[in-house]
Amino acid sequence: MRCDCDGSDPAGRVPLLIIATGSLATVASRAYQPTAEAKFFYDQGLSSLRAATYFQASKTLKQSVTLGSSYAPAHARLAESYLETSNTEQAKDEFWPRSRWPTGAALATIDKLNLDAINATATRDFPNAINSYQKIADQATGSEKANAYVDLGRAYEKSEQLDKAIENILKAATLDAQSAGAALHLGIAYSRKRDTKQC
């Protein structure tokens, strides 16, 4: 029996998370900048998330949220890490309700696109998740471009578009040969593609 490694929720329970009001404070109108420590844990958690070490990701992202409770991307990524381990109860507490998202200059374009992508993934709206991640990849520079292609590849993987997943993860691997996330998800995508052909 093949293990479903993509963290999807075949029972369709995840869309119910969107009705959660969450427990987050309303964000001030100005742009929120996390402390250096909160950003450090966020970056570490994001690396763990992309490398599919979801338990470690949730622990590290939880530290980021504790240190920067108004940092929307940290809450969103923490929710994503919980979803990957089917921990829907904790995930719904971290979702940032759309009505509370910062507006205008209060939220960087990339952060807004990430929130859109994670929200779309949670509701299994993969076309919109892919669209958001593609925009992030188009805008990203340097090492972040490789990370963006890993996220885009993961979105294609979840939507069962394995050829597109492989194409984008290979782009990530080309940009960053040391990317653990690219290596892992490339292996997952190739394995799932092989299993699909055998069915």
Which key phrases capture this entry?
single chain; 199 residues; mainly alpha; 9 helices; 63% helix; globular; disordered N terminus
3D architecture notes:
Helix 1 packs antiparallel against helix 2 and helix 3 (72-84) packs parallel to helix 5 (109-122). This protein has 9 helices and no strands. Helix content is 63%, strand content 0%. The chain has helices spanning 36-50, 54-67, 72-84, 88-94, 109-122, 126-139, 143-158, 162-175, 180-198. The protein is mainly alpha-helical and 199 residues long. Mean pLDDT is 79; it is low at 1-30.
Cα gyration radius (Å): 16 Å
Terminus-to-terminus distance: 12 Å
User: Order of helices and strands, N to C?
Assistant: HHHHHHHHH
Indicate the overall shape: globular
SSE class: mainly alpha
Mean of all residue-level pLDDT scores: 79
Number of strands: 0
List the uncertain runs.
1-30
Number of helices: 9
Q: What profile does the largest beta sheet have?
A: none
Helix content: 55-70%
What share of the residues does DSSP label as strand, in percent? under 5%
Quick rundown:
The chain is mostly helical. Helices cover 63% and strands 0% of the residues. The chain has helices at 36-50, 54-67, 72-84, 88-94, 109-122, 126-139, 143-158, 162-175, 180-198.
